[in-house]
Write a structure and sequence with these properties.
about 220 residues, alpha+beta, Glutaredoxin, four-stranded mixed β-sheet, about 35% helix, globular
Length: about 220
């Protein structure tokens, strides 16, 4: 392949990837260069959020589950805020300015931590869940009818092992505190009764595709 043809193909790949990763052209270019040259890439971000978006993409749920991208409000009182670019987006669902407002829209009395990712029910105007592992499980199980790919990321014969591995990894990451009877740190947000299992807390699947659209 000559240089000019390679350059054109490289730019085509960047264009296609940029349709999904909006406002991250420099990151996309550097990652592609590192990939093509067999380099090693270290990417900083929110681990649970990255994994959740990866599951959404692998399952082909882009049309069923929309996303809004927030800017971190480092050291500020809001935690995460909506912006009109270059790296963030406005709140395309409710027109709010920050993530705390989204939480309080679901429950005006909520005073817990405001974290991402978060799954929002556009039909009921409430928060479904804000724990990445549970959201990923919901995308796999509850949104299966809307998936554009046949990939099974949570095969039934391996589910128990997957759950054990996830819990062990979480415990090792958090330390001894995570091994106490009560789970530490993160306050989960769900409007559904505690007796309902995580997989049953998802947005009810409706007959019309657009009615099941949510936002992360």
């Amino acid at each position: 392949m000559d240089v000019e043809r390679f350059k054109n193909r490289f730019e085509e790949v960047i264009t296609e990837v940029s349709r999904v990763l909006v406002g991250q052209q420099e990151v996309v270019e550097q990652v592609l260069i590192a990939t093509l040259t067999r380099g090693h890439v270290l990417i900083e971000g929110v681990p649970g959020l990255g994994k959740t978006l990866l599951v959404r993409a692998l399952l082909g749920l882009e049309q069923a589950v929309g996303i809004s991208v927030l800017d971190p409000d480092w050291g500020g009182p809001l935690g995460w805020v909506f912006n009109d670019g270059p790296l963030a987006t406005p709140d395309q669902v409710s027109g709010l300015a920050s993530l705390p407002e989204v939480y309080r829209k679901a429950d005006p009395r909520y005073t817990g931590r405001v974290t991402v990712p978060a799954l929002w029910d556009r039909c009921r105007q409430t928060m479904v869940n804000n724990e990445s592992a549970e959201i990923m499980r919901m995308l796999e199980l509850e949104f299966r009818a809307f998936a554009g790919a046949e990939l099974d990321l949570y095969p039934e014969p391996l589910r128990a092992e997957i759950d054990r591995t996830r819990r062990r990894g979480w415990a090792e990451a958090v330390g001894e505190r995570a091994r106490s009877p009560q789970p530490p740190a993160r306050q989960r947000f769900s409007p559904y009764p505690p007796s309902v299992g995580p997989a049953r807390r998802a947005i009810p699947i409706r007959t019309r595709r657009e009615r099941a659209t949510g936002a992360l």
